[in-house]
Amino acid sequence: MNRRERVREATVQEIKQAAYAQLIAGGPTSISLRAIARDLGMTAAALYRYFPGLDALVEELAADSYDRLTESIIKLRDAETDPKAQLLASARGFRAWAVANRQEFTLMFGSPLPGVTDFDAACRVHTSGVAFSTLFAEAFMALWVTRTADPTDPQTTAAVAQSLDGPLLSWLDGVMPPEAVAYYISGWVKLYGIVAMEIFGHLSWAVTDVSPLFEAELTEYVNRLAP
Protein backbone atom coordinates (compact mmCIF):
# COMPACT_ATOMS: atom_id res chain seq x y z
CA MET A 1 0.00 0.00 0.00
CA ASN A 2 1.53 3.30 -1.08
CA ARG A 3 1.27 6.60 0.82
CA ARG A 4 -1.80 7.82 -1.09
CA GLU A 5 -3.60 4.55 -0.42
CA ARG A 6 -2.68 4.70 3.27
CA VAL A 7 -4.03 8.25 3.55
CA ARG A 8 -7.24 7.25 1.80
CA GLU A 9 -7.70 4.22 4.04
CA ALA A 10 -7.11 6.34 7.15
CA THR A 11 -9.77 8.80 5.98
CA VAL A 12 -12.22 5.97 5.30
CA GLN A 13 -11.70 4.71 8.83
CA GLU A 14 -12.23 8.22 10.25
CA ILE A 15 -15.51 8.51 8.38
CA LYS A 16 -16.65 5.10 9.61
CA GLN A 17 -15.68 5.94 13.19
CA ALA A 18 -17.69 9.17 13.02
CA ALA A 19 -20.68 7.28 11.60
CA TYR A 20 -20.33 4.61 14.28
CA ALA A 21 -20.35 7.30 16.98
CA GLN A 22 -23.59 8.66 15.52
CA LEU A 23 -25.05 5.14 15.47
CA ILE A 24 -24.25 4.50 19.13
CA ALA A 25 -25.43 7.94 20.24
CA GLY A 26 -28.71 8.09 18.35
CA GLY A 27 -29.41 4.84 16.55
CA PRO A 28 -29.32 4.03 12.83
CA THR A 29 -31.58 6.90 11.77
CA SER A 30 -29.12 9.42 13.22
CA ILE A 31 -26.40 8.59 10.67
CA SER A 32 -25.93 11.66 8.49
CA LEU A 33 -23.34 12.23 5.78
CA ARG A 34 -23.60 16.00 6.18
CA ALA A 35 -23.03 15.79 9.93
CA ILE A 36 -20.06 13.47 9.45
CA ALA A 37 -18.52 15.85 6.92
CA ARG A 38 -19.03 18.75 9.32
CA ASP A 39 -17.53 16.85 12.28
CA LEU A 40 -14.46 15.88 10.26
CA GLY A 41 -13.97 19.32 8.76
CA MET A 42 -14.69 18.07 5.26
CA THR A 43 -17.00 19.34 2.58
CA ALA A 44 -19.89 17.09 1.63
CA ALA A 45 -18.43 16.82 -1.86
CA ALA A 46 -15.12 15.58 -0.44
CA LEU A 47 -16.85 12.90 1.62
CA TYR A 48 -18.58 11.55 -1.48
CA ARG A 49 -15.17 10.71 -2.90
CA TYR A 50 -14.93 8.02 -0.21
CA PHE A 51 -18.55 6.89 0.01
CA PRO A 52 -20.89 7.52 -2.93
CA GLY A 53 -23.92 7.68 -0.67
CA LEU A 54 -25.54 6.70 2.61
CA ASP A 55 -26.14 3.17 1.29
CA ALA A 56 -22.42 2.50 0.91
CA LEU A 57 -21.57 3.82 4.37
CA VAL A 58 -24.38 1.89 6.08
CA GLU A 59 -23.27 -1.23 4.23
CA GLU A 60 -19.78 -0.89 5.68
CA LEU A 61 -21.08 -0.31 9.21
CA ALA A 62 -23.44 -3.29 9.00
CA ALA A 63 -20.72 -5.54 7.57
CA ASP A 64 -18.31 -4.50 10.32
CA SER A 65 -20.99 -5.26 12.91
CA TYR A 66 -21.66 -8.69 11.41
CA ASP A 67 -17.92 -9.40 11.48
CA ARG A 68 -17.64 -8.37 15.15
CA LEU A 69 -20.66 -10.47 16.08
CA THR A 70 -19.32 -13.48 14.18
CA GLU A 71 -15.90 -13.14 15.77
CA SER A 72 -17.35 -12.95 19.28
CA ILE A 73 -19.49 -16.06 18.74
CA ILE A 74 -16.62 -18.04 17.22
CA LYS A 75 -14.52 -17.41 20.34
CA LEU A 76 -17.30 -18.73 22.58
CA ARG A 77 -18.08 -21.66 20.30
CA ASP A 78 -14.48 -22.74 19.92
CA ALA A 79 -13.93 -22.67 23.67
CA GLU A 80 -16.17 -25.76 23.74
CA THR A 81 -15.43 -29.14 22.19
CA ASP A 82 -18.79 -30.88 22.44
CA PRO A 83 -21.19 -29.93 19.59
CA LYS A 84 -24.13 -29.52 21.96
CA ALA A 85 -22.14 -27.19 24.19
CA GLN A 86 -20.94 -25.32 21.09
CA LEU A 87 -24.49 -24.77 19.86
CA LEU A 88 -25.65 -23.58 23.27
CA ALA A 89 -22.65 -21.27 23.65
CA SER A 90 -23.20 -19.81 20.18
CA ALA A 91 -26.86 -19.03 20.82
CA ARG A 92 -26.12 -17.51 24.22
CA GLY A 93 -23.30 -15.51 22.69
CA PHE A 94 -25.67 -14.11 20.07
CA ARG A 95 -28.08 -12.86 22.71
CA ALA A 96 -25.31 -11.47 24.92
CA TRP A 97 -23.84 -9.54 21.99
CA ALA A 98 -27.24 -8.18 21.00
CA VAL A 99 -27.99 -6.97 24.53
CA ALA A 100 -24.58 -5.30 24.78
CA ASN A 101 -24.77 -3.75 21.29
CA ARG A 102 -28.39 -2.74 20.83
CA GLN A 103 -27.84 -0.02 18.24
CA GLU A 104 -25.69 -2.27 16.07
CA PHE A 105 -28.28 -5.03 16.38
CA THR A 106 -30.94 -2.56 15.27
CA LEU A 107 -28.84 -1.56 12.26
CA MET A 108 -28.33 -5.20 11.26
CA PHE A 109 -31.72 -6.70 12.06
CA GLY A 110 -34.16 -3.80 12.36
CA SER A 111 -36.25 -2.06 9.72
CA PRO A 112 -34.34 -0.75 6.68
CA LEU A 113 -33.26 2.87 6.95
CA PRO A 114 -35.20 5.41 4.88
CA GLY A 115 -33.36 6.05 1.64
CA VAL A 116 -31.18 2.94 1.96
CA THR A 117 -31.90 0.35 -0.69
CA ASP A 118 -31.64 -3.42 -0.29
CA PHE A 119 -28.10 -4.76 -0.50
CA ASP A 120 -27.29 -6.94 -3.49
CA ALA A 121 -25.64 -10.35 -3.32
CA ALA A 122 -22.24 -8.98 -4.31
CA CYS A 123 -21.92 -6.46 -1.48
CA ARG A 124 -19.78 -6.94 1.61
CA VAL A 125 -22.65 -6.91 4.09
CA HIS A 126 -24.22 -9.82 2.22
CA THR A 127 -20.99 -11.82 2.47
CA SER A 128 -20.60 -11.03 6.17
CA GLY A 129 -24.26 -11.87 6.78
CA VAL A 130 -23.85 -15.27 5.12
CA ALA A 131 -20.83 -16.00 7.33
CA PHE A 132 -22.95 -15.24 10.38
CA SER A 133 -26.00 -17.15 9.12
CA THR A 134 -24.04 -20.37 8.67
CA LEU A 135 -22.07 -19.96 11.90
CA PHE A 136 -24.12 -22.53 13.81
CA ALA A 137 -24.28 -25.09 11.00
CA GLU A 138 -21.29 -27.30 11.87
CA ALA A 139 -22.30 -27.94 15.48
CA PHE A 140 -25.93 -28.33 14.44
CA MET A 141 -25.08 -30.95 11.83
CA ALA A 142 -22.86 -32.87 14.24
CA LEU A 143 -25.95 -33.28 16.42
CA TRP A 144 -28.32 -33.87 13.50
CA VAL A 145 -26.40 -36.83 12.06
CA THR A 146 -26.19 -38.54 15.45
CA ARG A 147 -29.81 -37.91 16.51
CA THR A 148 -31.69 -40.93 17.77
CA ALA A 149 -35.12 -39.59 16.82
CA ASP A 150 -36.65 -36.81 14.75
CA PRO A 151 -36.78 -33.62 16.85
CA THR A 152 -40.22 -32.74 15.48
CA ASP A 153 -43.07 -34.45 13.70
CA PRO A 154 -41.63 -35.70 10.37
CA GLN A 155 -44.68 -34.55 8.41
CA THR A 156 -44.38 -31.03 9.82
CA THR A 157 -40.66 -30.92 9.08
CA ALA A 158 -41.25 -32.23 5.55
CA ALA A 159 -43.89 -29.56 4.92
CA VAL A 160 -41.49 -26.81 6.00
CA ALA A 161 -38.70 -28.37 3.93
CA GLN A 162 -40.88 -28.29 0.81
CA SER A 163 -41.52 -24.57 1.31
CA LEU A 164 -37.84 -23.65 1.56
CA ASP A 165 -36.58 -21.10 -0.90
CA GLY A 166 -34.24 -18.15 -1.07
CA PRO A 167 -30.55 -17.58 -0.33
CA LEU A 168 -30.31 -19.65 2.86
CA LEU A 169 -31.21 -22.85 1.03
CA SER A 170 -28.49 -22.24 -1.54
CA TRP A 171 -25.94 -21.33 1.16
CA LEU A 172 -26.59 -24.60 2.96
CA ASP A 173 -26.87 -26.73 -0.18
CA GLY A 174 -24.60 -29.71 0.29
CA VAL A 175 -24.12 -28.85 3.97
CA MET A 176 -27.39 -30.22 5.32
CA PRO A 177 -30.48 -31.90 3.83
CA PRO A 178 -33.72 -29.91 3.48
CA GLU A 179 -35.25 -31.54 6.58
CA ALA A 180 -32.28 -30.38 8.64
CA VAL A 181 -32.48 -26.89 7.12
CA ALA A 182 -36.14 -26.76 8.16
CA TYR A 183 -35.31 -27.51 11.80
CA TYR A 184 -32.29 -25.19 11.66
CA ILE A 185 -34.51 -22.33 10.50
CA SER A 186 -37.18 -23.09 13.09
CA GLY A 187 -34.57 -22.69 15.81
CA TRP A 188 -33.29 -19.43 14.39
CA VAL A 189 -36.81 -18.00 14.07
CA LYS A 190 -37.62 -18.93 17.65
CA LEU A 191 -34.42 -17.70 19.28
CA TYR A 192 -33.98 -14.62 17.09
CA GLY A 193 -37.61 -13.77 17.75
CA ILE A 194 -37.05 -13.70 21.50
CA VAL A 195 -33.87 -11.63 21.19
CA ALA A 196 -35.45 -9.14 18.78
CA MET A 197 -38.50 -8.73 21.01
CA GLU A 198 -36.18 -8.14 23.96
CA ILE A 199 -34.01 -5.58 22.15
CA PHE A 200 -37.00 -3.68 20.75
CA GLY A 201 -38.81 -3.68 24.10
CA HIS A 202 -41.69 -5.95 23.10
CA LEU A 203 -41.45 -8.31 26.07
CA SER A 204 -41.63 -5.75 28.85
CA TRP A 205 -45.37 -6.37 29.16
CA ALA A 206 -44.72 -10.04 29.96
CA VAL A 207 -41.43 -10.52 31.82
CA THR A 208 -38.98 -8.46 33.83
CA ASP A 209 -36.06 -10.73 32.92
CA VAL A 210 -35.90 -12.37 29.50
CA SER A 211 -33.07 -14.76 30.45
CA PRO A 212 -35.25 -17.58 31.86
CA LEU A 213 -37.53 -17.48 28.82
CA PHE A 214 -34.60 -17.51 26.41
CA GLU A 215 -32.90 -20.36 28.27
CA ALA A 216 -36.10 -22.41 28.38
CA GLU A 217 -36.68 -22.06 24.63
CA LEU A 218 -33.01 -22.65 23.79
CA THR A 219 -32.58 -25.77 25.90
CA GLU A 220 -35.91 -27.20 24.76
CA TYR A 221 -34.89 -26.75 21.12
CA VAL A 222 -31.40 -28.23 21.54
CA ASN A 223 -32.58 -31.08 23.78
CA ARG A 224 -35.02 -32.17 21.10
CA LEU A 225 -32.04 -32.58 18.82
CA ALA A 226 -29.64 -34.04 21.38
CA PRO A 227 -31.31 -35.20 24.62
UniProtKB/TrEMBL annotation:
<dbReference type="InterPro" id="IPR001647">
    <property type="entry name" value="HTH_TetR"/>
</dbReference>
<dbReference type="InterPro" id="IPR050109">
    <property type="entry name" value="HTH-type_TetR-like_transc_reg"/>
</dbReference>
<keyword id="KW-0804">Transcription</keyword>
<dbReference type="Pfam" id="PF00440">
    <property type="entry name" value="TetR_N"/>
</dbReference>
<feature type="domain" description="HTH tetR-type">
    <location>
        <begin position="9"/>
        <end position="69"/>
    </location>
</feature>
<dbReference type="InterPro" id="IPR025996">
    <property type="entry name" value="MT1864/Rv1816-like_C"/>
</dbReference>
<protein>
    <submittedName>
        <fullName>AcrR family transcriptional regulator</fullName>
    </submittedName>
</protein>
<dbReference type="GO" id="GO:0000976">
    <property type="term" value="F:transcription cis-regulatory region binding"/>
</dbReference>
<keyword id="KW-0805">Transcription regulation</keyword>
<dbReference type="Pfam" id="PF13305">
    <property type="entry name" value="TetR_C_33"/>
</dbReference>
<keyword id="KW-0238">DNA-binding</keyword>
<dbReference type="InterPro" id="IPR009057">
    <property type="entry name" value="Homeodomain-like_sf"/>
</dbReference>
<dbReference type="InterPro" id="IPR036271">
    <property type="entry name" value="Tet_transcr_reg_TetR-rel_C_sf"/>
</dbReference>
<dbReference type="GO" id="GO:0003700">
    <property type="term" value="F:DNA-binding transcription factor activity"/>
</dbReference>
<feature type="DNA-binding region" description="H-T-H motif">
    <location>
        <begin position="32"/>
        <end position="51"/>
    </location>
</feature>
